[in-house]
Design a protein that fits this description.
Blueprint: H1 10-25, H2 34-46, E1 60-62, E2 67-69, E3 78-79, H3 81-91, H4 101-118, H5 127-135
Antiparallel strand pairs: 1-2, 1-3
């Protein structure tokens, strides 16, 4: 879903291969944020990384604008304050961001929505819903 045609993309292949190696070598207790961190790094190499303009004033991440804003509407295009702060930390390279399970899932859902909005080749990603139904 990430590729626009059937051509080769060695940078993307190398990135994914490195991520798989990281997963294999990472201690199990450090894997909880890995899916969100993967999407952040993927967006960086793909050229549509979220802008980290987080501040006390701009404390809500707005997915279509790819930045933090000073207003919030309760819908799928915004991350609430706690989730936005956690995203901000991850964008700054903090690898051990402490989140509850619910916040972690909300951040991941927001990042999946971010991929869908900012990558024209991705229409729908079912993986998160499928995994949730199988694992719970």
């Amino acid at each position: 879903k990430l590729l626009s045609d059937s051509g080769q993309d060695s940078d993307l292949f190398d990135f994914i291969e490195n991520e798989i190696d990281l997963l294999d070598t990472m201690p199990e207790n450090h894997r909880s944020n890995l899916p969100s961190e993967f999407i952040i790094r993927l967006s960086e190499i793909s050229g549509y990384s979220p802008e980290d303009n987080y501040s006390e004033m701009n404390s809500y991440f707005y997915i279509p604008e790819s930045q933090f804003v000073n207003y919030y509407f309760d819908n799928q295009m915004f991350l609430p304050a706690e989730e936005s702060f956690c995203l901000h930390q991850m964008l700054n390279g903090v690898t051990d961001v402490q989140m509850t399970r619910a916040v972690r899932i909300n951040v991941l859902r927001g990042l999946v929505a971010y991929l869908q909005v900012h990558n024209e080749h991705i229409k729908k990603i079912d993986s998160l819903d499928i995994l949730s139904s199988v694992l719970h």
